[in-house]
Amino acid sequence: MATIVPVMAELFEEAFERAGVEMRSGYDLKTARRSLNLLTLEWQNRGLNLFTIEAGTLPLVAGTATYSMPADTIDLLEHSVRTGSGTSQRDTTLERVSVSTYARQSSKNMAARPSQVFMQRLATEVTVTVWPVPDGAEVYTLSYFRLRGIDGIASGIGGDVTSVPPRFVPALVAGLAYMIAVKKPEGATRALLLKQAYDEQFDLASGEDRERASTFLRPGG
Predict the structure, then answer these.
(1) Rounded Cα distance, 91 and 17, in Å
(2) CA nearest 94: which of 35, 142, 148, 137?
(3) How far apart are CA 149 and CA 49, in angstroms?
(4) How does pLDDT run across 146-158, given as a tens digit for each residue?
(5) Is the distance from CB of 171 to CB of 202 less than 8 angstroms?
(6) CA dist 216 to 211, 219, 221, Å?
(7) What residues contact 221, with CB distance under 8 A and at least 6 apart?
(8) Where are the domains of the chain?
(9) Environment class of residue 170 by beta-carbon count within 10 Å: exposed (0-12), middle (13-18) or buried (19+)?
(10) Is-contact 129 118, C-beta < 8 A?
(11) Alpha-carbon distance 26 to 24, whole Å?
(12) Residue 63 — left, alpha, or beta (φ > 0 → left; ψ -120 to 50 → alpha)?
């Protein structure tokens, strides 16, 4: 069975129809695009979506503690320091510490193999600070899995929604319809019903988009 990926114009038209209004002008397209970008930002606050997880590496430089992550980074999920290569490659997990724990560290400039990572989610970028500061004894690489942002639409309505997997497209349309209804007086009477439909669609998609690995809990003793 072929995977159907609707083009953006069709998604906008479907959302307007659900809101009970017509898409008539260029401004309607502009306001729909703006709402769609805000919707994808909201998804980033709703929790973990597996399709936004991305692996990466970052070379660590001797004497340098703080590094900038890719611009669309939201958070780091896993992080380790990598040494060696090939069959001798070894990844050692880095402990993530809070701002207060890092602030209390008296020897911030101590040089050795990093064992901890402190992350700052700033307004314009995400940075990571490793401790101890990398020394020159080995070549160190930060290996990580990060949560990245969902691509928005800068302009126009051409193309499709390839940055969002098909299983999330119904939730995207339902959410867009709700946001349009809130902004349009003629669609206000449908807003509550559309909000309920949106929450249901997102719960269905996010419930399916989960880890399948088995989890075992063992009491401490």
Answers:
(1) 52
(2) 142
(3) 10
(4) 988 876 655 454 4
(5) yes
(6) 14, 10, 16
(7) none
(8) 8-48+153-208, 51-148
(9) middle
(10) yes
(11) 7
(12) left
At 21, list the tokens.
Answer: 């209004």
Exposure string over 177-196, b if 16+ CB within 10 A, otherwise e: bbbbbeebeebeebbeebbe
Q: What is the pLDDT of residues 17-57, one digit of tens each?
A: 999 998 887 788 888 888 988 888 888 777 667 777 889 99
Cis amide bond preceding 132, omega within 30: yes
What length is written for the chain? 221
Residues 82 and 74: their CA atoms lie apart, in Å, by 22
Structure tokens that stand for 37 in this block? 């970008």
Q: How far apart are the first and last CA of the chain?
A: 51
Pairing outcome for strands 133-134 and 66-68: unpaired
| CB hemisphere CA count around 5 (13 angstroms) | 9
219 Cβ contact list (under 8 Å, min separation 6): none
Structure tokens at 100: 């207060």
- Listed residue (95, 173, 177, 94) closest to 140, CA to CA: 94
Crossing angle of helices 8-18 and 26-45, rounded to 10°: 90
d(CA 30, CA 92): 48
* CA–CA gap between residue 17 and residue 13 (Å, rounded): 6
The whole-model pTM stands at 0.69
